[in-house]
Amino acid sequence: MFDSEPTNTILLIFAALLYGAVASGCVLRTLFEGYAVRAPWDAWRVLGLILCFIWPILLLAPLAQLWRGSRKPGTEPRGLGSLRGGPDRAEDDRVRSKG
To answer: What pLDDT score was predicted for residue 44?
Structure first.
């Protein structure tokens, strides 16, 4: 990942704080919406509060996979524009260079 262990620790702490801030904001908004309409405390309301902590993971997982896949040893980091890889792209590049 990175060359130094303190950098990894600092980035991990920053990511956890950012995740906690986003999730806490979602929980607070959901709580205030429930109080505003005087919603009863049923299973759906509790499930909604629990999902406030889970949904940011669904956003982070694909981004982490993209970042991890672009950091393999011996390869260049790819940006979002290079996701159209595969055999078809290699063939297209050969045709363009000949033509």
So the answer is: 92
